[in-house]
Amino acid sequence: MANPYRELLAVPGARTFVAAGFVGRMSMSMVGIGIVLLVSAITGSYGIAGAVSATLSLAYAAGAPLSARFADRYGQRRILIPLALANASSFATLITFTLLHLPTWTLFPMAALAGLTQPSLGAWVRARWKHALRDGPARLHTAFSFESVVDETIFVCGPMIVTAVATGVHPAAGLAVAAACTLAGCLALAAQRGTEPPPNPPSAGGSASVLRNPAVLVMAPVFLMLGTVFGAIDVSGIAFAEEKGHKALAGLLLGCYALGSGSAALWYGARHWRSPLDRRFRIGLILLAAGLVPPLLITNLYLMMFVVFFSGLAISPTIIPGYGVVEQAVPGHQLTEGLALVSTTVGLGVALGASSAGRVVDVYGARAAFLLPLGAALVAAAIGLAGTRKINKHELSSRQPSG
């Protein structure tokens, strides 16, 4: 039996742009923690550190779709090189200002500039897959599945790396490594001209905002709620492990959740699906919500690890067809922008979920906090079930499923 992933990576240039994208995207799971570890170590305030990190996240949510729009119009290389250099300079300045104990307010504009220049490389890489597999669209769902596995790997490894470096070497080292990953990955991706999607400026009368696209209007709030699920699960899981007297096992607990998602992504991508893309997405949303009920009933940490693995199985089969719906419904000249916009809403949701779950934990405890991801999943399912039915059916079903 042929291995679809081996065949995927045999596409000319695929291995190199996948590697560049992996390195460049490592920072997406590192910069927030890196800022908190650095700023809190220098200022002694987690409140200031959290505010600086939140500033970067908000600026990233605003800047990533914009840079992706320019990439669609002018080509990835022309945008990536100046963007990467500006991002590296911003992080270097932020680190310098922090270490020099400059006034606290100076950290915020530097964090904002770093966020504005941080590309959503996952969307850029997915756009490359779309271009590289233009003669074989049936394989695109395998590529998107593979990228979900890459994302899960990044979110498992990144926090451990940045924490180890910041605590074991120097408080600034973790953030510096994260910034270096972005710079190296972006420059390496920009150097690969053979797989770069050609510039695709909008045609006359075709420059309407991607936010007016029905698929984006549905997927953005759904992915926001999915991000809320992920952020709330992280905080709830850490608090649960601490309440059981095993805080050191919190990472393992969250790793089980990510492992479930990664395993499902590999399985999902290896199959050739005949069911409509939007139907798979709706089923995934329902299963995701259902999988978050059992954690409410568990009181044993080790049993919780087992349960959250199965809870995580529904993540990738929901995220992957969600990206596929956007890929099919958004015009080619807005593809990277549309994917980036949806991706950034996940980051906003993670911040929302983490902060909300933290408040619930403080007042009611960890078990009560598990209600938050369930509630967010139910909202995502309600929006997705209603919204996907309004997306142009012909647009989704007349083309071969790719997610």
TrEMBL record:
Keyword field: Membrane, Transmembrane, Transmembrane helix
GO cellular component: plasma membrane
Transmembrane helix listed as a keyword: yes
Gene3D superfamilies, per database record: MFS general substrate transporter like domains
Keyword tRNA-binding among UniProt keywords: no
Molecular function per GO: transmembrane transporter activity
Pfam families (alphabetical): MFS_1 (PF07690)
Cell compartments where the protein resides: Cell membrane
Chief location of this protein within or outside the cell: membrane
The Major facilitator superfamily (MFS) profile domain, residue ranges: 215-403
Superkingdom: Bacteria
Membrane topology type: Multi-pass membrane protein
Membrane-spanning parts: 16-42, 48-67, 79-100, 216-241, 247-269, 281-298, 304-326, 338-358, 364-386
Range of residues in the leader sequence: none
Protein name as annotated: MFS transporter
